[in-house]
Amino acid sequence: MNFKKYVLFGLATAGMLLSFESCKPKGAGNAVSGNAAEKTYVAPGQYDEFYNFASGGFSGQLSVYGLPSGRLLRVIPVFSLDPEKGWGFSEETKPMLETSHGSVPWDDLHHVQLSKTDGDYDGRWVFANANNTPRIARIDLTTFRTAEILELPNSGGNHSSPFITENTEYVVAGTRFSVPMDGEGGDVPINTYKQNFRGTLSFVSVNKDNGNMELAFQIETPGVNYDLSRAGKGVSHGWFFFSTYNTEQANTLLEVNASKNDKDFVLAVNWKKAEEYLKAGKGKKVSNLKYVHNKYDDHTHTATSTLKTETIVLNAEELEGLCYYIPCPKSPHGVDVDPSGEYIVGSGKLAALIPVFSFSKIQKAIAGKQFEGEFGGIPVIKYEAALHGEVEKPGLGPLHTEFDGRGNAITSFFVSSELVKWNIKDLKILDRVPTFYSVGHLMIPGGDTKSPEGKYVVAYNKITKDRFLPTGPELAHSAQIYDISGDKMQLLLDFPTIGEPHYAQAVKAEKVKDRSLKIFKIEENKHPFFTKGENEARVERKGNDVHVYLTTIRSHFAPDNIEGIQQGDNVYFHVTNIEQDWDMPHGFAIKGARNGELLVLPGETQTLKWVPDRIGIFPFYCTDFCSALHQEMQGYIRVSKKGSNVPITYSLGTNQPVEKTN
Amino acid sequence: MNFKKYVLFGLATAGMLLSFESCKPKGAGNAVSGNAAEKTYVAPGQYDEFYNFASGGFSGQLSVYGLPSGRLLRVIPVFSLDPEKGWGFSEETKPMLETSHGSVPWDDLHHVQLSKTDGDYDGRWVFANANNTPRIARIDLTTFRTAEILELPNSGGNHSSPFITENTEYVVAGTRFSVPMDGEGGDVPINTYKQNFRGTLSFVSVNKDNGNMELAFQIETPGVNYDLSRAGKGVSHGWFFFSTYNTEQANTLLEVNASKNDKDFVLAVNWKKAEEYLKAGKGKKVSNLKYVHNKYDDHTHTATSTLKTETIVLNAEELEGLCYYIPCPKSPHGVDVDPSGEYIVGSGKLAALIPVFSFSKIQKAIAGKQFEGEFGGIPVIKYEAALHGEVEKPGLGPLHTEFDGRGNAITSFFVSSELVKWNIKDLKILDRVPTFYSVGHLMIPGGDTKSPEGKYVVAYNKITKDRFLPTGPELAHSAQIYDISGDKMQLLLDFPTIGEPHYAQAVKAEKVKDRSLKIFKIEENKHPFFTKGENEARVERKGNDVHVYLTTIRSHFAPDNIEGIQQGDNVYFHVTNIEQDWDMPHGFAIKGARNGELLVLPGETQTLKWVPDRIGIFPFYCTDFCSALHQEMQGYIRVSKKGSNVPITYSLGTNQPVEKTN
Which of A464, A497, A517 is a domain's end point? Predict the structure, then answer.
């Protein structure tokens, strides 16, 4: 076999990479479709056609855009503190950012996955991965809030995640950085990588009824870097495909040392087989771990963080038929499965071609033991035996592929900054358009389902430079929408994005919008410090803890003035928004508070903890403009010295103000 | 005088306010200009015409939009932690969020002001106010970063801010909530408001050369609520106008109790007179205060927080000719000055008309002592003596007014949800358009300057409801752009916004874009832990502190592996991005870190402090996709037990990796 033809770079060097940006697309310029303005314009009062859920990358959050307008509809806080929404600041949401080693205020959210039923989006949940401190989140599309976060043990960077099976049976997580297994003594020299560092693939089950996640099992493999993954579907249902790099098992200067092999691997995992092994008791129970499972409850309006200590590990080397490697040129990034499930596309970011593997040929190869050897005890299928064919000279730096539902694939090329459309069966290139600049992921609505909506493709670009008015050294990342309804792809619109969108998915608005909750029903509020109405508003001291049962309604707080607070008290403002109208939040903030603010939606209770560190008068007020008399929605707290004899007194903000002494 | 005609509500009640939302604009529907799509479409590769700087409200940040596209170009972190950009997480930026009582991770940014020279925007800086913990920030428009934050003593909620004079001589800050003066014993009963609570107006000087702010003086007034303010210009240069409410001096249920007086006041302040009094030594030096002044330096790439203890206070009651009250119906919110400086528009949010005051008549009234009495020792000018005229039956709930530069004013109406255009001189109403829904501030580019660009008006709406695809109970706030170049205002586009935009300003792109910095020059880097190149990269232990001098360049870290770290060490990663190309940031994150991540721009050094709390192998990696080999840009830290004898060892990530032992 001649490896040379698969290899773009003999040896990657920093110097060469520095020249990437000179590889701007040339010639085609910014040519746009003649009626691009109309095609992307969504008139006032009209809705966008698609919800586009885009990862926020290093923001740690999830962005929701409308397509085709590119308008940012909402940023959903997931893994990072959000001062705007009080996420991670309120007592109720703090547990959501807990990990097995304390609160972590940030993460790097890379990929999103809409839940699926029968291989198509069902509009119920979005899953997202934390790439730094390994976790998976589930966002509920009735509330557009993060409902659950599950930490992953035995992992070092959860990049190959949260890809899901076609009925949302499992969400997976492949460790990007192999590390020593938890609880087995991690204090080892880094240059013992090959002996001590292991790669794990976590399979997280999802409850069909309520979406709850559990770590079902992990598969232990040799130490490599796992990059991306996709579930099989249709004919390949029951299998999962993971791309790997650093099969050199290097542990320093990976830029060079992990770019040496001409081929790395796609790892094919038979998860139905894994289930059989589990049933047969072939899993090893490991119980000296620490990871947490955080859940938010929409009725108590509170989160809990539960420490877990056990997982079940299946050993890929020992359990025959569980895993197979497929050679894939070179440092494969994306591994994508076509709508039928038959074709698996590996995008080697340093490769000069795109291999397309055939699921049926893989099965035949396994049956016929067409192996070229093994890696870490796992059989390596012969490249040619698994191959459907190769897309030749497609572009430079292929990264990801999505599908248009008309038999075509579109692949993004980072180095040559373009999108290339090709036919899945005959592998012929049909069209190419430049991106500005250096596209990473791309997204076709439904592009990973069995029924893609091949109307648009969006390129999520890594370099922005001159695409928008300059904003100093730091620029927003950018996206570009193309019309792909015809034979030729046509650029429509550039739009800037929050953080760094890696992957994104889009779904027809109809599948989501009618699920969307407008208010939390106040009669369903089970918060332990819920205040049903102003007549229940009160202040209670319990030792050094002071609980303020506080209500908000346009446009006053009850109570609005509180005296008798002492320096060093733990003051808990339990704010219940007793409104029941859509889009009528109230905010709560107090001067100098270390816990930010609360943004409390109708029917909800949220708690701000405040520890006054000095005497004086502290104003508080509503932070979300709520009515013509919003500016009047305020109160004062009087803080006296520790041990002061000022009694707890408060004014009830009714139309007939009264003072109550506790 | 018949007060009745000025009064919309005899007594505001919660019940009545609840019905506001039924006051949706009717009839006009969503009619848009025929070519709205073309008018708002900015083709790929083209620039927007205006930078629109919008306050983030309860996000605490500043948003930069392009107009007319409505695209969000950048969120600039100001008063709140920003996990996306490491703002408040890096050691360098932590001091920017310090206050006199410790770090405060959040605030409520209400208003923005572009710096002015000769009454027009000069494109140098944006000022912004913190409404919760009183502060003013200055954002530098070369870097689009927050350069300075000044805390304000003697204040309780800084709402009436950061309005500026026509040569940026002063930025002002009027306390929204009157409070006892600092350092004079604030532990007083709240119902002693009239005796003990004071209103202060802070005048902050701005250095012409570098923008540096200093608290020049404060004016002490009776306790009321200050709402908004505007400087005089042209003929009224040297004066400042502040709107007040709660002249009832109520301290509970302000919704009712501060809505009783038929007129409150606009306070006219002669700041040139204040300067004379200061020179004459009439200010009282107060030196038992605490407030901080935080500055960020673009060469050391670090911030400092300096504690201040002194201010000079001028007493408005004692110093004749300094302050005058002008009666203004009813609970005035906006107070806006026309391009000539002659006309001052007071928008009483509960008033059924709009009074327009005349600066020359105010001067005549003062000269002729046409007073109707005094309030707290300050003369009250007769309403009619100050009045140019009234706009009759303009709409319900007037809030703010901007000017189109063609002799017209446009006023926003919260309750009747509309914009109304009227002629400044004859006070005749010329046009009205609905807003969706409940507009707060409005903005015309240059609308508060002497030369407005009357092409667009943007309505920043408080209620969103059905304007965009629903996103659960919490919706983005929204803005609407109207074409005002013709006689009739025409709705063009709705766009969602970050946080809650209160005020916004827009400036022609030409005035800002060429100032924008592309990189930080590495030869100008004066950071104390700067690493000039990979040959200087190193790890140094000093007791329990470990300093990692770390460089980033596509696509590796130097060093990339570090051993010899011990549990409980203070590890400082001083990351220098040695790139010098535009738009080539690198990020830095390590598994489980409590200080988020770093986003390091070319030529910059930033520091992440990490205290490992357990033994093991911790991966770190670049968080901003930088090249085709970005995924290879990683390293490992080995953490051993406290007292371990593993020596400090590190790999230098050059093309020829070496290990160095310290």
Answer: A517
